[in-house]
């Protein structure tokens, strides 16, 4: 019998950090009294008070009005302070920048969107401007900044200041760069860098536990969520739904390959097929019953359903969420995606759910802000240090 590996006991600082993160995570769902937190976490009331009271003193948490509607001594709810730390997220898109500031509980404080075409711009210009935009938006709140996140249009290796943008098919001048090196305006706060679609998937954790998120901008991005976590993959490229091949010798794709679903169902391909300039015009034409518009949407939905049938067969999830530019086109895309996935399903009668994101293009910054807040709450001592 092989010897058992030695057991290393958790050190007191690690236990404290774990318990504090547990309590702060519970408060993300809404204010709660110390007694209720003790009951829900299994920690003693003294431990709860000892962990949270310093955060009240630091202005991270605040006490609300006592609840006098119950029996016995009224409890005083604790919640994240309205003047406490915020996080900021910025998404670099092919044709613009989106930025969002939220509290640690996810409450939206400020948001902005700027149109700016990035195709011919270098990393210093793109990410320098993104960082300045994010910093300016956060500074306008007058609240301390606990962390920042940059969502980028391509797969990423790593997630911190050393993260590398491996390839941006629609912004090739950004290939191989390290976004944080060009984000001087955010150099003094913890910085997270991630793929736009993978981060956008996090905005939908309340819709399903396991799902594939598919986001359309110029191309198609995606994220695979299992047990509430986004699968990153060994090289950071998991969830690249847009580059699932649906026709081996088909249309050329911006990634250098051929036959990728992005070349058939990405917004550029969809709009070209419909002969329309933008998503708003496409939606208006489809609502008016224009056959060119509805036909283009049906073909794009069929192509997307073909790709997604392969994806869900591999990862075995039951739900697909359509977001980004697809969100406003769900009326026409969902039936076509459903039909193709059902036709190609391996399990008879196992109909997949196809949902439409309630966030639209804002999903990326919403999910990025959540990821940054999660990181800050997992290291609560930094909140006290700030």
Automatic annotation (TrEMBL):
Signal sequence coordinates: none
Pfam families with a match to the protein in the record: ROK (PF00480)
Entry-linked InterPro entries: ATPase_NBD (IPR043129), ROK (IPR000600), WH-like_DNA-bd_sf (IPR036388), WH_DNA-bd_sf (IPR036390)
Coiled-coil positions: none
Family: Belongs to the ROK (NagC/XylR) family.
Name of this protein: ROK family protein
Protein source organism: Pseudonocardia spirodelae
Taxonomic lineage of the native organism: Bacteria, Bacillati, Actinomycetota, Actinomycetes, Pseudonocardiales
